[in-house]
Amino acid sequence: MWNRMDLKMRGKLAFTRNYWSSVVVALVMALFIGSSYSRYTSRATDAFDFAQSGHYGYHMSSSESIAAAMFALVAAAVVGIISIFFMILKIFVGNLLLVGGSRFFIDNQTGTPGAGVLGSAFQSGQYGNIVVTMFLKGLFLGLWSLLFVVPGIIKHYEYLMIPYILAENPGMDRREAFAISKRMMMGQKWNVFVLDLSFIGWRLLEGITFGIAGVFYVEPYYQATIAELYTFNRNMAYQQGYIR
Fold this sequence. Notes:
Blueprint lengths: L3 H14 L1 H15 L4 H16 L8 H46 L19 H21 L1 H10 L3 H7 L5 H12 L3 H9 L2 H9 L3 H29 L4
Helix pairs in contact: 1-2, 1-11, 2-4, 2-11, 3-4, 4-5, 4-7, 5-6, 5-8, 10-11
Organism: Schaedlerella arabinosiphila
Protein name: DUF975 family protein
Pfam family, one: DUF975
């Protein structure tokens, strides 16, 4: 079984050895993992609510009410259009960048790849397979999360290895990718949850510095650590014979 401190130490050494490329790749990955459009749509929704409720309790005339209602409809339409746009962008571009970023951090363990590895999924000749597999990963995770919080968290860790598996095996059948990720994470979900918790101090620093620490240290450190986890699991899978 892997050791949390050992994974983090190796991850830190790997990303600091190739610092600037790691920062760029981790930043791109974080934009799509964190649903980069959410803050914008949240502000638009606030505008929608503001228009509906009136100006700080000010009683509006009928013409002002109509204008506010029209503004609310426009705001809702903008929110919907932006949400759909970024959803499509994530499915057809963002998810492939996540796979490419995973490839970068795998390669970064033994070499010094450039940030251009981000585009490796587009050059793999398996664009459609990666798009479908990553879309299903997100869809299944979303459906499980609708049930209760805990099943969603469990499935998050169960599917965690899929981008890394696709990074090295872009043509792998989606059913096999899900099955291998599930097997890799069997008996490890709690330990990986604790591994995530061990970054909580860094996440607090990220918040205090308005994301600056996240961009220049926390995200590349975290991504490099999870790549180390994948490499350990891949080696164990070879030893146990369920991948060749």
